[in-house]
């Protein structure tokens, strides 16, 4: 599956994906029976799975917007670190809205195509959004804060009560 939309990823994720792509291409160029087998029973990764991963990474990199800082306007969009409250439980979660395959490991990542990502995309602080989970239940969340990736460390240090009072 390929995409034509622009995909926001961190510079670290871009570098990691480039490295992974190079490693996978090297494996295909010089396969060993323990690295890439023709069958899953060989104990290796199937050649077709490696080729599919290469295509996925190539597609991500071709459409990548690397570390471009979105406007600091509080609107939930790719490249923003979002803090939300699950309204039914009061739990608070902070995550990066970006492409899931390119996570950098330091911050949880939700895709704009995930149920939560789709629901919260375009929201402003204080706005409540809903989405359905596989069980059919509806989850209500409120966007508390949205800051560009890289600027989120100082925003994350604020308490949730400061975030809810931002009123932006």
From TrEMBL:
Top-level lineage group: Bacteria
Pfam families the record matches: GreA_GreB
GO molecular function, one term: RNA polymerase binding
Key word Protein biosynthesis present: yes
Keywords assigned: Elongation factor, Protein biosynthesis
Residues in Transcription elongation factor GreA/GreB C-terminal domain copies: 73-144
GO terms (BP aspect): DNA-templated transcription elongation; regulation of DNA-templated transcription elongation
InterPro entries: GreA/GreB_C_sf (IPR036953), Tscrpt_elong_fac_GreA/B_C (IPR001437), Tscrpt_elong_fac_GreA/B_fam (IPR023459), Tscrpt_elong_fac_GreA/B_N_sf (IPR036805)
PANTHER family: TRANSCRIPTION ELONGATION FACTOR GREA
Name the record gives this protein: Transcription elongation factor GreAB
Species of the source: Antrihabitans stalactiti
């Amino acid at each position: 599956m390929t995409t034509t939309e622009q995909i926001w990823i961190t510079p670290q994720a871009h570098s990691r994906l480039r490295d992974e792509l190079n490693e996978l291409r090297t494996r295909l160029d010089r396969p060993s029976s323990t690295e890439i087998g023709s069958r899953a029973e060989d104990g290796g990764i199937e050649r077709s799975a490696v080729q599919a991963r290469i295509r996925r990474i190539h597609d991500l990199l071709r459409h990548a917007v690397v570390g471009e800082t979105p406007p600091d306007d509080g609107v939930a969009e790719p490249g923003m670190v979002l803090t939300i409250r699950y309204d039914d439980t009061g739990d608070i979660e902070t995550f990066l809205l970006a492409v899931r395959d390119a996570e950098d490991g330091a911050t949880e990542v939700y895709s704009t195509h995930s149920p939560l990502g789709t629901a919260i995309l375009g929201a402003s602080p204080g706005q409540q959004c809903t989405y359905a989970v596989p069980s059919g239940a509806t989850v209500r969340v409120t966007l508390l804060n949205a800051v560009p990736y890289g600027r989120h460390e100082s925003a994350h240090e604020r308490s949730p009560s400061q975030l809810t009072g931002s009123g932006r």
